[in-house]
Write the structure tokens for this entry.
Amino acid sequence: MLLTVFNGSPRGRASNTACLLEPFLEGFSETAGNAYELHYLAREKELEEHIRAFSEAECALWAFPLYTDCMPWAVKNFIEALAPFCGRQSNPSLGFLIHSGFPESLHSHNLKRYLEKLASRLGCPLIGTVIKGGSEGIREQPPAMTRALFRRMRELGQVFGRSGGFDPVLTARLAQPVRFSVWKLPVARIGLKMAELMYWNRMLKGNGAYEKRFARPYSQDNAEE
Amino acid sequence: MKIVVLNGSPDSRRFELDCYLAELEGLLETRGHVVKSFELRAMNIGHCTGCWGCWVKTPGECVIRDDSQKVCRAAINSDLLLFASPVIMGFTSAVLKKISDRLIPLLHPYFEIDRGEIHHRKRYERYPAVGLLLERATDTDEEDLELIRDIYARMALDFKSELKFTGLTGNPAEEAADALDRL
Ligand SMILES: Cc1cc2nc3c(=O)[nH]c(=O)nc-3n(C[C@H](O)[C@H](O)[C@H](O)COP(=O)(O)O)c2cc1C
């Protein structure tokens, strides 16, 4: 199988999307005869090339993060450029890997609905949608923290490489938690506190911006140019 | 009420949304509202690169200096933020999505739990109500409209607010003005 992959993260190669794709594509490539090509939608100047890649693909995987409860700008820009392909006979089958900063997969449910409708609007056979929450930071985490996730991504890729589909059990696991149950919320709260200290505060301090973290630069409506 | 309109029509050759907004803005002004409208396609607005500079370098402000600062300032000081767009491939336009991504300096990186879900914390005391105005395309169906509404309702939640109005340019502008008046 030849897989055409579109990484839709604004961060391109240095993205969490790329980190999730890497083990997936390794697993995918284990099946003899499988190959993939990878495109970065953040490279605006390559839009024509992306359109061509889509039009020639037999099977396409779109992977990107949730941005304000939907797709990042570059992904919508790409989608608009694909309008001429709606209903074309030879469109590729289409699978989606979406992930969010917030840990629960429920944040991505509307986007999944949108993407699956988009596949039918384009007339692309739908492979499915994999959702992963809590993706912010994985590109910087030590291997011990990401090992289990990357193993799962690799397995997902292996099954996909053999069958052309997303394993439902692995997909369901990756989507956990859909939301936190009442008794898990206190644990989640501790995790969030850790993220504030270890992630946001560390960066704020590193930039000498910690004291200004609550700044409200627009609080007076005083700069009417 | 202070109303900020984000006109997400990508193309000046498409008149319907532009004309509708001109009429609606006129009506709202005669009723005493203060309307500020941004024609996004004509503005210099880059896309979010996901650098988090707006949270950890220059808190509250994007590190990319362009017209997005004007929009952020107007938006946070308004009572209603109206997202207006033609429906393109089942969603609002890319040009509108671009500014939506650039609104996150208005939030704070820290977290809170709201209705049992994780969200970011407020940066400002108050946030504008959210409105949505859509121009249907020939391929737009009810499911598309519902999806867009659902996505903007969640986005409103993330922006510490609520989706308070949804309108279609197929309906008279007076109707929209009445509905906005009642908010
Ligand atoms: C402008 C912007 C908007 C975002 N909106 C959301 C959101 O609505 N919900 C969410 O869970 N995460 C949101 N995120 C977080 C990203 O989904 C998260 O950081 C992700 O891991 C980025 O992946 P990447 O490195 O592949 O780009 C947003 C991030 C940015 C920069």
In short: The two ends of chain A are 56 Å apart (CA to CA). The domain at 2-179 of chain A is CATH 3.40.50.360 (Rossmann fold). Residues A 9-11, 15-17, 65-69, 99-102, 107, 135-136; B 48, 50, 101, 104, 158 surround flavin mononucleotide (CB under 6 Å).
